[in-house]
Amino acid sequence: MTLIVKPGFNGMTDADAIAYVNAVEAADGQLLEFGVGKAINDFVVGCKLDNTWSAIKASCILAGARTLAGALVPLAGTAPTNVGGLFVAGDYNRKTGLVGNGSTKYLNSNRPLNADPQNSHHLAVFVQVAGTGPGSNYAGASGAGAAPWNPETSIGFFTSGPFLYFNNRSGDATALVVYNQQAASGFIGTTRSISSSFSGRVAGSNYSQSTASSTPPATNLFVFARQRLGGPESPTNGRLAFYSIGESLDLALLDARITTLINAFAAAIP
Questions:
Q1: Which of 95, 98, 121, 126 has the fewest beta carbons closer than 10 A?
Q2: What is the CB-side half-sphere exposure of residue 231 using CA atoms within 13 A?
């Protein structure tokens, strides 16, 4: 079944948004609601106005689509691999996204850590329901060396700490730690635009860590887990509605756009 959205239909005007919605609807086998399509269009247009769109190199909106297949259609870049086919239809909710099980389920983004410049890199997720730990990773990948596993990019948390942590071209020993945010929901992300430091964002606030970057390895980033030594480490049982990987960008601007999108889905989907 071929479904083609044309400019102006479903409130859509942007060519990239139209191409994405066409692909989602083909995977779903039916059209999206007017409000869902328009929300996606507004998100893409907004990111372009913010000058963040071109930095998004690998991304999925893990909500909005009618089916899991539709949710795994990439907004940008290569489609992720549902490793082992372990995510199933029952794990997906159109309004709230995709939930992990804290043990076996994760996505391979198929985006290598070294695909982006050493000093221009971001990783972000939208958490609908925080994982319960005691420690887990929302996304990331590390080098193959010994501890402190330098370098890596990751977002994770410890409930026993209790803290949320970020790495961006850095190792465990130089992570950015934000205390008492391990149960945070909403947008969580990290970005690096210079060699000497990187930033993290959670609960609407930005934090900075002075840590020199290291040359990233050719290791694919995972979502719902961090890749370490070729396999998943500490998968999360949290529920995610979005992820993005790519070059450096303004975290606050992306936060505002994706939060608006997820809220629009909640209003548009019956």
A1: 95
A2: 4
Cβ atoms of 164 and 130 within 8 Å: the answer is no
CATH number at residue 215: 2.60.120
- Total H helices, total E strands in the chain: 4, 17
75 falls within a domain: yes
Range of the structural domain that residue 32 is part of: 9-268
Reported as a single tens digit per residue, the pLDDT across 111-155 is 999 999 999 999 999 999 999 989 999 999 987 665 556 789 999
Q: Give the DSSP letter of residue 76.
A: B
Per-residue pLDDT band at 11 (split at 50, 70, 90):
low
Res 171: pLDDT: 80
Cα 241 from Cα 235, distance rounded (Å): 16
The two structure tokens encoding residue 180: 């008492």
**Whether the Cβ atoms of residue 138 and residue 224 lie closer than 8 Å to each other:** yes
Give a yes or no: residue 45 inside a domain.
yes
Q: Is the pLDDT of residue 197 over 80?
A: yes
Cα separation of 68 and 105, whole Å?
Answer: 14
Residue 9 is predicted with a pLDDT of 59
Count of structural domains within the chain: 1
- Please state, in angstroms and rounded to a whole number, the distance separating the CA atoms of residues 154 and 151: 10
What length does the chain have? 270
What's the distance, CA 36 to chain centroid?
19
Residue 92 forms part of a structural domain:
yes
Question: Is 189:181 a contact under the CB 8 Å cutoff?
Answer: no
Does residue 7 have a cis bond before it (omega within 30 degrees)? no
How far CA 254 is from CA of 3, 126, 143, in Å, comes to: 29, 10, 27
First to last CA, the chain: 24
